[in-house]
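Listing 4. Sequential folding, example run.
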Amino acid sequence: MKNAWVIGAMALGLTGGVPVLAADDAADSAAGSGPLGITVQYSGSVMIFQVADIVVNGQFANDDYSASARLTTAGLAALFSDADIEAGVSGYRFGPRLQPWRYSHYNHASSKNRTVGIDFPEGVATPDIEPPFGNMGEPPATAEERAGAADPLSTLLAIGLGAASSSDSLCDGQLPVFDGRARYNLRFEDGGTERIRTRAWSGDAQICHAYYEPVSGYEADEFPDDDTISHPITFWMAPVHGGDLYVPVRIRTNAGFGGVTITARSIQES
């Protein structure tokens, strides 16, 4: 069921690393859109069984942003692990690029009462875990590896703003991510477009394939297996706010038991 959590973490936030911007780069943000707000509710399933409910909320001003997310497992997932995870992040916005300032998440269903926090002094993702993990991985992520990496929630939002896009595609390139212990990359490939219909949206969606590339911060028995790495997580991205922002309306991974699908149930623009 670890693959279900990977995809759930992406929906909570799996979008990506952004560099610290110098003052001269502020001019680039002029191309960014004005204030935007979005709330998306998702449901996740394995085969025909509902396994998770996810709500993601993002608010974007001209020069900063904030977001929150909640993931709760249900049904089949309860046979594997319980989760009721609440996450939040705030930071600075430079057009399509996001520089997080503070991220944290807490699993209300866990008996460990652990808050996983990340600060970003000078753009270096720095863990602030209480109580601390007994092991930060073998080997742990170095400061050099954490430089420029963002939290999972900022990563998802940044993809929708175009941080992983090129002149030819919404999905192109690589984004570094740090979740408080694990450091990994998401490598994106364009999958073309497909007409889809969900409860929340219908139309031509941009397909993005995201390949999970582990770097450091994993215990030996937690390192992703070849099956997880070889199968991409596929996002169907839909335009909202007149195309100023894209949100996933469907997320799918074929790895694991039956694969996992997350689908948007409702989208509210503000």
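-- end of first protein; second protein begins --
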Amino acid sequence: MGEVSLETSAYAKIILHAAKYPHSAINGVLLADGTKIRDGAKNQDLDIVDTIPLFHHSHNLSPMAEVALTQIETMAQSDNRIIAGYYAACENFRDNTVEKCPGQKIAEKIVEHFPSAVFIVVNNKKVVQHLDSPAINLYKYSEGKWKLKDANKVMFHTPYAFVTVSHLLERGVQKDLVDFDNYLDDLSQDWTNLGIEKLIASINASNTIDCKEKDYR
């Protein structure tokens, strides 16, 4: 398979989503830079530039998923991005394999449309530890099932990704993350989480870690 790179904000939103709902399974989709995608090519490199949190309790409600994916695809196309994968975390702390994850049908639908799609599974045990290494496992669809791949295939855009995410967690930023369950309960909430993206961008720009300010919404 090709190499997979992750923007810090894309990785952060995965971990923040899992941390906000530690006793629930969660899922979401991965968005890649569409300008780097070759039509029809298999096993190509993916630059994951964003993640969209989906659900923490509506995993099995297909109408909800259809609404979410339609809105996400419309937004992605306007930004020259594509839905290029899926992420999830299991409800059970010890279940860190793709077979136990929720929303398998969503992942299968994505790979039908984009054969180079990847599946990221949150390693629950690493989320609660100091994040000095990726708290995720990477899977690729092959021969009819998702297969675990070498973690070294995942690269990060900045060397500060783990430190940034660790400090976001310490400051409780996960409380402000919005998934589609939150959005469907209150349509005024921002499921793109632009405020969190801006906070992370400011941290990256200054190479400092100071998440005490809460005026990033």
